[in-house]
Amino acid sequence: MELRRFGPNIIVTGTPGCGKSSTCELLKDELKGYKYYNISDFAKDNDCFEAYDEARKSHIVDEDKLLDKLEPLLRQGNSIIDWHVNDVFPERLIDLVVVLRCDNSNLYSRLHARGYHDSKIEENLDAEIMGVVKQDAVDSYEPHIVVELQGDTKEDMVSNVARIVAWEKMWLEQHSDGVTNEYQGPHGDDEESE
Ligand SMILES: Nc1ncnc2c1ncn2[C@@H]1O[C@H](COP(=O)(O)OP(=O)(O)OP(=O)(O)O)[C@@H](O)[C@H]1O
């Protein structure tokens, strides 16, 4: 397995309906050669579901199995991960966590347009109001790699993608020798860690 990656791994996360997949579609066009992982699709294609949650009408992902399949791919770097869950990935493999936010009226319209049940819309609206996804990211990664971006309009999306592309360019300039994929211990004091 790769000891170092020479391109960053970027998570695009946020409450369902906030614009992850749309943003990633645009981002993929800008970041040439990046591999895109929509984790819902990846889990299905790689038989990583462990059960089905009838109440929430959604599959439950076997996170251990998911990571077994995903880690070798993330160790190659240059990945875009699209999922509303962000706190399952090893910190040592993640370079940027983009938390997309969306105002409630927009989110309601988007989820309603999808035909979501009222209960599922309410659950997601509550999560967005409470900032659940952002909190997961802040609890799981160094604060300086977590970026919160508003995604209410198409202009927002274009601007968000431009910011991520600019960040990626800077990352490459700052990490010409790549970064380690290996765990560096609690304090990361090994000069190899960056
Ligand atoms: N910045 C934006 N401005 C306007 N519309 C947007 C924006 N982002 C997403 N949308 C629209 O909102 C809807 C949901 O977007 P999208 O599917 O990308 O969300 P998502 O976060 O990937 O949802 P899920 O997690 O359920 O897959 C789509 O109809 C999309 O066109």
UniProtKB/TrEMBL annotation:
Enzyme Commission numbers on file: 2.7.4.3
Gene3D superfamilies documented for this protein: P-loop containing nucleotide triphosphate hydrolases
A GO term, aspect molecular function: ATP binding
Region (LID): 113-123
Binding of ATP, residues: 17, 19-22, 114
Domain of life: Eukaryota
Keywords attached to this entry: ATP-binding, Cytoplasm, Kinase, Nucleotide-binding, Nucleus, Ribosome biogenesis, rRNA processing, Transferase
GO cellular-component term (any): cytoplasm
SUPFAM superfamilies hit by this protein: P-loop containing nucleoside triphosphate hydrolases
Catalytic activities: ATP + H2O = ADP + phosphate + H(+); AMP + ATP = 2 ADP
Signal peptide (UniProt feature, chain positions): none
Gene Ontology biological process terms from the UniProt entry: ribosomal small subunit biogenesis; rRNA processing
Region NMPbind, annotated ranges: 38-61
Main location as per UniProt: cytoplasm
Location(s) in or outside the cell: Cytoplasm; Nucleus
Functional summary from the UniProt entry: Broad-specificity nucleoside monophosphate (NMP) kinase that catalyzes the reversible transfer of the terminal phosphate group between nucleoside triphosphates and monophosphates. Has also ATPase activity. Involved in the late cytoplasmic maturation steps of the 40S ribosomal particles, specifically 18S rRNA maturation. While NMP activity is not required for ribosome maturation, ATPase activity is. Associates transiently with small ribosomal subunit protein uS11. ATP hydrolysis breaks the interaction with uS11.
Family: Belongs to the adenylate kinase family. AK6 subfamily.
HAMAP family given in the database record: Adenylate_kinase_AK6 (MF_00039)
Oligomeric and partner information: Interacts with small ribosomal subunit protein uS11. Not a structural component of 43S pre-ribosomes, but transiently interacts with them by binding to uS11.
Cited PANTHER family: ADENYLATE KINASE ISOENZYME 6, POS9-ACTIVATING FACTOR FAP7-RELATED
Name used for this protein in its record: Adenylate kinase isoenzyme 6 homolog
Organism in which the protein naturally occurs: Saccharomyces cerevisiae x Saccharomyces kudriavzevii (strain VIN7)
Lineage, opening ranks: Eukaryota, Fungi, Dikarya, Ascomycota, Saccharomycotina
